[in-house]
Design a protein that fits this description.
Layout: E1 2-6, E2 15-19, E3 29-38, H1 41-48, E4 62-70, E5 82-85, H2 98-102, E6 116-120, E7 124-126, H3 133-136, H4 139-152, E8 161-165, H5 169-180, E9 184-188, H6 192-200, E10 205-207, H7 215-222, E11 228-233, H8 237-246, E12 247-255, H9 269-273, E13 277-280, H10 286-299, E14 305-310, H11 314-323, E15 329-333
Parallel strand pairs: 8-9, 8-11, 9-10, 11-12, 12-13, 14-15
Antiparallel strand pairs: 1-2, 3-4, 3-6, 3-15, 4-5, 5-7
Length: about 325
Amino acid sequence: MRAYEIQPREGFDALTLVDRPAPALGPTDVRVRVHAVSLNYRDLTIARGAAKRKAPVIPASDGAGEVIEVGAAVTRHKVGDRVAGSFFPRWIDGAMSEQAHAAALGGSHDGMLAEQVVLPEVAWVKLPARLSFEAAATLPCAGVTAYHALFEAAQLRPGDTVLVQGTGGVSIFGLQLARAAGARVIVTSSSAAKRDRAIALGADHVIDYKAEPAWGEAGRAWTGGRGADIVIEVGGPGTFDQSVAALRYGGTMSILGVLTGVRGEVNTYGIFHKGLRVAGIYVGSVAMFEGLIRALEARQIEPVIDRTFGFTEARAAYEHLASGQHFGKVVIRVS
């Protein structure tokens, strides 16, 4: 089969198209012909750090396709099923574990940017017939993360206010899911065109964070001074304090991104002063993925794809995501 490997090279030159044997199939495994893969910020960091790798790995955690072979003991799936793989194949339900964390796709374990992928049957989630493979490929990381941030780490209710940062994959899913649940949504973006698109997608209010550096205060002011119930925090230390400012007393910050780094000075006073809950979000379980599918179907939500690239254009897809010009998800069509 053809597959991409992240090899020990500098930058996106690490992304290398190779021929390698198709993976073996165990008795409880399912083999899938991958039709589409989507990219996440994590994929950029893995590629950029490739020079330090000791061994190649197939990148990308998110993919969808068609079952073409099942192991002798498989009961959950059959040949012809349309499925997507879970970011954490061993995190089925309940709390995250060290074992589940270690098995994340596209990092230490081979991921989805290949013509065929074999995973345990419990790691594959069945897809609604209405979703294309391209749309389904956007769900395993960004979609599940947004679902976890809103409905598992927090208890979003109709009438709540949610603030999402930017217009990347997680934030756009957060906007769509929150609006479908009856919440009001604030979106921050420095791009006028992206702010317009967010409004067209259902955002109730937008803020230019460059024109208004104190965007957290601006968001709270828009709520009449009460503050947002939930903030989906994707920036990290560089945006943390403004998220604290935006939140109401007793609100929840679902923190899941490191766009401004992983270390930095933050003001902890606001956390205990306002009684905030800061919840760390690292994608989610298979059960959360299945919950996301039910939520999408209940409101017929269509994932937002910014651009789709061909299989041989994978490096261009990485470069497009790295440019920051995208609105929603970047997808690679495999077959």
